[in-house]
Each structure stands twice: as structure tokens, then as C-alpha cells.
Specification:
single chain, about 60% helix, mainly alpha
């Protein structure tokens, strides 16, 4: 499995992933070391957490991996942990800020 490589590419600790998929750090570490095989349900959780197809997690390198940065993943994880009111407030705040357009030079 490609769990350690994916986790380190995304700048996450084992504890970050374990918390995100709701298992102990010890259990997740065993998945990474190949000492324990995740169930189908756990593969689905890992796939959702990493935003990666299951076949990629299992080693199919031809499958594209999400390009979320650690910051973007932190936003997702914070959103998942927040109550509905906080999620709504955060989204409204982000959407209320206009996108800055790059200035172009006119000849």
C-alpha cells in the first residue's frame, strides 16, 4: 500500500490521518507498515480522507492523486470537525471576499 508516501506528500502526520479516519494512531501505523490490512470500509475512509482513489492507495500509480496542499487539507479537516453553524459562517466569509484579479499590462 502507498499510505506512507501519500501521507508524507500531503505533509501529514500519522496522528493527523488516524484522527481523520477515526482510528488510533497505532492502528493506522500498522496499516502503513503492512502489519494490518484495512477493511473495505476503512479503505473507503482512507480514500475519502486522502481524496485518492482506492486503486491508487493500493499501489496503482497510473491513477491521479489529488493535489491538495497541507493548508487545503487542514481547511477540510477543520470543516469536518466544526458544527454546522461554524461551517456556514466560514464558507460565507470565504465567499464574501472577492477574488483578486491579476493586473495585466496593456500596450
Amino acid at each position: 500500500m502507498e499510505l506512507k508516501r501519500i501521507r508524507t506528500q500531503k505533509g501529514l502526520s500519522q496522528a493527523d490521518v488516524a484522527n481523520g479516519i477515526d482510528v488510533s494512531t497505532t492502528v493506522y501505523a500498522r496499516y502503513e507498515r503492512g502489519e494490518r490490512e484495512p477493511s473495505i470500509e476503512m479503505l473507503l475512509r482512507l480514500s475519502q480522507f486522502f481524496d485518492a482513489p482506492i486503486d491508487y492507495l493500493l499501489g496503482n500509480k497510473d491513477t491521479a492523486l489529488s493535489s491538495f496542499t497541507k493548508y487545503e487539507l487542514d481547511l477540510v479537516m477543520a470543516s469536518r470537525a466544526a458544527d454546522e453553524r461554524a461551517k456556514e459562517d466560514a464558507l460565507n466569509m470565504l465567499l464574501s471576499h472577492p477574488v483578486k484579479e491579476e493586473k495585466t499590462l496593456h500596450a
